[in-house]
Amino acid sequence: MDKVKVQNYIEQNKERFLSELFDLLRIPSISAQTEYKPQMVKCAEWLAASLVKAGADRADVLPTEGNPVVFAEKIIDPAAKTVLVYGHYDVMPVDPIDEWRTPPFEPEVKDGRIYGRGADDDKGQLFMHAKAFESMCATDNLPCNVKFLLEGEEEIGSPSLYKFCEDNKELLKADIILVSDTSMISMQTPSITTGLRGLTYMQVEVTGPNKDLHSGLFGGAVANPANVLTRLVASLVDENGHVTIPGFYDDVLELTKEEREAFNKAPFNLDNYKEALDIDDVEGEAGFTTMERTGIRPSLDVNGIWGGYTEEGTKTIIPSKASAKISMRLVPNQNFEKIAELFEKHFRAIAPKSVKIDVKFLHGGMPYVAPTSMPAYQAAEQAIEETFGKKPLPFYSGGSIPIISGFERILGIKSLLIGFGLAEDAIHSPNESYGLNQFYKGIETIPLFYKYFAEK
After folding, report:
1. In the chain, which stretches have pLDDT less than 70?
2. Where's the Peptidase M20 dimerisation domain (predicted)?
């Protein structure tokens, strides 16, 4: 590979790359809300056309049981190594909209950062791969076969992608799956994600009386589902931050003292962490550091809770129903299906007879570990060290990408997670952003990964 030619092409086309990213960010591809279904198709078609322009031999919008998948490929030599690039074009809902300082689907650059929904997660990051691919194709410097698999359902658990992979194993054959949907420790301390937590996502509903009741006439005599729900939810984590579901920790992989010490060598400033979040103190499982709590320990969190009257003014009622969405992040050896069963059994057991309980499993996935001994990891390590001037650290992420473990199970292919996001990007939150430096540094680094991977 002629690195100079590739980098010159990137430099000469930086402004166009950014303009095209803005076009992608303007498409409101929200997978969680059915009203945006036409926008999902529009986004998939836009990406397919973009990949053809970038140099793909083919780019198809393929149907699934849900939102379409974009598949593209360029085969330079059947004997060459093949990289399968995975990303997702769906984005999170924008609520609460009044907290956005700029319109979520009207991207703009402020203080060196791209603001807009999907700027980082995952449009900005997947688009780095499209433009790195273009830069290699345009300069005749593509050293590997490349395939793209871009889905529109990651933010809702990739429900259709598992069957798509089962049905298309031959189409998706590759030596490594390359993913940028994670973060680095910082631009000063680059890292490669070597582990992801798994996920079990549940929804619970507590039902009391068969209709809303007057809180004066019935208060104190009939179970209030909102009161009961909050009591039950509060009991799921004790005062030491320990999840109280029996059997929850039975399969947790416990790290040795030496492994924990090595894990905590990554730079982390607790005061800066608290200041950035505007909190006075952290909270979590006793006996573990903040980094351990978000990387190597499981957790349970309420993601949403509702019931009763929440509009302006007052309405004195005992609500008939109250509900909550609850996610549990899992670590190696924990099984998301087993945890779902344990959760439901426990939640039903602790509920009083004065209410009815409904428990639903929404989606989940297994934890994932990527060995640092993989040739792909070593190639990424070389590439990042060259562009950042510093060897990256292996790092466990607290996030989950359930389909990654699915890829390994169904396709038999490991994934390499080289994300360029940062904590300050505020993914899933109002005012999501992505640094220009992150975007361009990613485009600069990815071709080097191809170079070094081809040489392994």
Report:
1. none
2. 195-353
Q: Could you read off the pLDDT of 167-181 as tens digits, one per residue?
A: 999 999 999 999 999
Residue of 36, 58, 38 lying closest to 146 (CA atoms): 58
| Burial tier of 71 (Cβ tally within 10 Å: 0-12, 13-18, 19+) | buried
**Single-letter code of the amino acid located at 49:** A
Q: Which amino acid is at 133?
A: F
- Closest C-alpha to 440, from 131, 4, 23: 131
**Helices 123-138 and 37-54, interaxial angle, to 10°?**
20
Is the domain 199-252+298-365 a CATH 3.30.70.3270 member? no
pLDDT value of residue 265 = 84
- Supply the mean pLDDT for the chain: 96
Enter the tokens of residue 292.
């351990």
Contact assessment for residue 291 and residue 397, using Cβ atoms and an 8 Å cutoff:
no
Which candidate, 374, 375, 373, 378, places its Cα nearest to that of 392?
Answer: 378
Q: Give the Cα separation of 277 and 298 in Å (integer).
A: 21
Two structure tokens written together for 345: 């059994």
